[in-house]
Amino acid sequence: MAGGGDWPDGELQRWFREQARAARTEVRVVPLDALRGWHADPGTGDLRHRGGGFFTVTGLAVGSETGPVPRWEQPIISQPEIGVLGLLVRRRAGRVECLIQAKMEPGNINGVQISPTVQATRSNYTRVHGGRATPYLEHFATARPGTVVVDVLQSEQGSWFLGKRNRNMVVEARGPVEERDGFRWVRLDVLHRLMRLDNVVNMDTRTVLSCLASVSPPGPAALPARPAGHGEGNGARDGDGFGALVTASFAPPGRPDGRPDETEIELLSWLTAHRSRQPMTVRPIPGRTVRDWSWTGDEISHRDGRHFSIVGVEVRTGVREVDGWDQPMLVPRGRGVAAFLVRVVGGVLHVLVRAAAQPGLRDAVEIGPTVQCRPENYAHLPAADRPRFLDEVLSAPPERVRYDCVLSEEGGRFYHAENRYLVVEAGDGVPDDPPEDFRWTTLHRLAALTRQGHNVNVEARSLLACLHALSGATP
Amino acid sequence: MAGGGDWPDGELQRWFREQARAARTEVRVVPLDALRGWHADPGTGDLRHRGGGFFTVTGLAVGSETGPVPRWEQPIISQPEIGVLGLLVRRRAGRVECLIQAKMEPGNINGVQISPTVQATRSNYTRVHGGRATPYLEHFATARPGTVVVDVLQSEQGSWFLGKRNRNMVVEARGPVEERDGFRWVRLDVLHRLMRLDNVVNMDTRTVLSCLASVSPPGPAALPARPAGHGEGNGARDGDGFGALVTASFAPPGRPDGRPDETEIELLSWLTAHRSRQPMTVRPIPGRTVRDWSWTGDEISHRDGRHFSIVGVEVRTGVREVDGWDQPMLVPRGRGVAAFLVRVVGGVLHVLVRAAAQPGLRDAVEIGPTVQCRPENYAHLPAADRPRFLDEVLSAPPERVRYDCVLSEEGGRFYHAENRYLVVEAGDGVPDDPPEDFRWTTLHRLAALTRQGHNVNVEARSLLACLHALSGATP
């Protein structure tokens, strides 16, 4: 069930390979103190860019009332600016098309991945560091009335970023929009099929698609039915109507007055209760003082080699905003797992979500996947201390695995950061009445909370987009 | 049109007066350095309580890209704990009843006001400072499935509090609940009528009622029609079907599939755009270093006597959690104005909202009233620099003033802090296409954003509750 299957469209695949070739990028890991334009703050050791802006690497002291570890310190990436992740869409012959980009990011394991039309930090698009103008930005900066489909702030990795969020936008193009070099209009259903391949659709695309999954405006509203015949030799398994079940499960339960139903209120209440407990306290600290970490001019790494390290990267390319640059990047140790356990209840697909506390989230707690961890970090612990449901997910028989792909996290800040994303049907051992920090909910309710912003973490949003990509698939 | 009218229920009024008499509280303004249990931090000058917890008074440096003043410094109250504002409701003979409390707060201009069933900081209800148990807390701490009507985190005054928010809850009681001393079941429509009196219904009640206005669960859902015959001699004017118009305008536009309509998306998009601009940067600074403010052992006040001051207050009472206590309080200079301009468009009442940036809001920008200011702070400025639409609101002829009451802000932190709340029909001079930071929206959409939390500021929520209280009123 690994996501190494075929492309849905040979011509598209040729275009993508050509773009990857044209990117011609060299990425080299170098010592932190060799990074041009970056320096360690003499007082704190924090890594800063000469011109300000971009991001800094600093320290965080975390106190956790409820987690397995009561307190720890860690390096963290601070990037308070709000960037734009914007997907331009249009309708052609009754189908939705998306303007995608083949974008090189230095952290991508394969150089180029599919990104949204615009993927730009504020520093990028206001061009404070020089560089070229961001193509198509005008469609998002001054969206005309009636064209906005999605526009909401969403968090990113709460273990690696301090309070980071991006503006997730989907805007419908009015009038013709040309394909510039490196950009291409593709059908939404084709983009969904690309999500069944390993490391092709990047994180920023996935989070935008997760927001789109919940919104049905007059236009791109009518998401077309997916064509039949896939599910063979790639990351998704169907053949028994699972896709149709997913489609039905995204549908609202149908409260005619548009007000929230009781279960929606209870899902929000459960999240509010977890937030109100304030399970984590966080305090910025000077990077150099971070306990249990080695913070040198070479790299920043954990004493026991766990979690992640921060390394220097030298990028030489001809296709980005500037012709080359240096930057620190975060390298996770080992491949992560992010999984939803799912179960059909009353004819509707439910997912088991978790109230996930992460120190970098602005509200400490968001809704996360059933399982989200790097198993290697737990290898030294007894089985009882491994994350709940991890073994259930990893040992599920193939017929219960509905989705299984390796997807990359943000390649602009994370170096070779991969997660194995899984959707697995829960076995009998998974309770209908789960532990207090878990909750069964429908795809519809999860999508409704997603579109409000700041409620669903980025890994759960990726899984939501993966599930949405499965919808409508038929044998 | 001032809110000095009659009580809807003479017996209720007698009970309330009796409670006020029984509270027997002495509140005395004293120098800050005379406060028992409080001290100025030797390093920073910040005011702290001996035991930690409660709150601190510290400093904030604010940079504003878009406001009239590019940078300033100010004292601010930091209270990171999340408290509970909980209203217990039940159904009796087809009507909703609420368990209210006659609660003494030292800052109340009249001692006792109507508060929700539970109004407690986390320090209160976990009893870290001793004191009595919080009555009825168990209904909110462990609400049973199907009983939660509202449960959401909401911000409070963003100019006076740093990142403060409370958990707003409405829970339906199952089984009989006795009225303890100081508590009383009242009909929701009676509570609504009390909102037309000056300084009777406190801020915490208003914010909880604003959330209730948008939610319609199976139970308390069916908010009963208000009885006819009020609107005379109190803070609300009707007589021409305005109440019925309000009721209709709270109704959703009726998108049968439960997904957001285009205009709801655009309202959220407008708010997201204002947030993404990050109009304010805030940085905590030591209190003693705050520029333009005098920070002494006596009080903290602005050089020119504007904005507010921080004073010491000595409270002696027999009815609160402890028998007496000392604390700093914030005293605003002059009475504020918070107003909605409203207009009927297409048979539906619209309100003119504003993207309001305030330094203490966690997300910098929330939806605020059309006008929100303390006019005295602008007395020294030329007319062109006065807040937009302030004169329109204050000079409206009586027949356009639909609501006009003086209501108090939180009496536990603010001393004699009053705002004049107004709902005024817009004259011809108010454009249909307002300046970019204003937006016309319906009551329904405003309520829908309110129930998501962190979108609508506390003054706009008070106005929403006031408007809801007008609904159904007929001549």
From TrEMBL, chains A, B:
According to the lineage, what is the superkingdom? Bacteria
Question: One MF term from GO for this chain?
Answer: lyase activity
Which InterPro entries does UniProt cross-reference here? EvaA-like, EvaA-like_sf
Q: Which residues form the dTDP-4-dehydro-6-deoxy-alpha-D-glucopyranose 2,3-dehydratase domain?
A: 10-212, 266-467
Q: Gene3D superfamilies from the entry?
A: EvaA sugar 2,3-dehydratase subunit
Q: What is this protein called?
A: NDP-hexose 2,3-dehydratase
Organism, scientific name? Actinomadura logoneensis
